[in-house]
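DM from R.C. (forwarded with permission)

"hey, sorry to bug you on a friday — could you get me a structure for this? deadline for the figure draft is monday and I only need the backbone to look sensible"
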Amino acid sequence: MSEIKKVLTVAGSDSSGGAGLEADLKTFEEYGTFGFCAITSIVTMDEDKNWHHEVEPINPELVYKQIKTVLSGGKLDALKTGMLGSVRVIEFLSTIIDQNEIENVVIDPVMVCKGENEVVQPENGKAIRELLLPRATIATPNLFEAGQLAGIAKVSTIDDMKEAARKIISLGAKNVVIKGGKGLQAEKAIDLLFDGSEFTLYEADKLDTDHNHGAGCTFAAAIAAGLAQGMTVKAAVSKAKEFTTAAISGGFAFNRFVGPVWHGAFHKAEQRMNKYR
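My reply, with the result:
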């Protein structure tokens, strides 16, 4: 058996299981990589308050100790971020990436919880722009996050996505893929990759479902696992698109508020197809 690749997620915990570090670890496993986690915050959702999200950050020193524990096992093959909890955690991360020469860095700039309208921990946006984007192999914002990073009021068309992507690259990221989602004015579900010189569109049929909780986290985690396995950025994004589309198609109702994606759907479909080959 070849050496198992090691991937760390530094992210918040989502006890509903669809998003956050729970989604990341499931995705890493599906990709055949070994997942580690450092918990930055705990997200709770109150069914008595219309599923309102509350975020409880973890002490930054404890986050640092978690990462130090992971790094005691040697070099990582990839690192992926999600909800980061505090500016201090972002500062720690920027130093850790440099000191440990981590090559595959996926920055998922989580700024809003699905179903919420307010920016989570808005003070983190500036720190992500200044400290993490310059260290990113690839950044994976959704439309809202891309607008926040690029300083654009609203990103809703492919032309808007291209403008935002150019500005994000100018902040130091080597690559950026903007997740179109349902907010994009297009017939297809489109993600846009920009490497500083070339735009690449990834398309899939839009799925008529609300069972998409965790899709963004899953997409970014899949890219991280793909890079850890030695894929190029383009190949990692392409497979992540297929993986996430399958996960959304297999989503289910957790309760009357949320329906998570199913991270096992991609390989389950492959297994079904292999029965007829």
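R.C.: lifesaver. The first helix runs from residue 20 to 30.
me: no worries. The chain has a mean pLDDT of 90.
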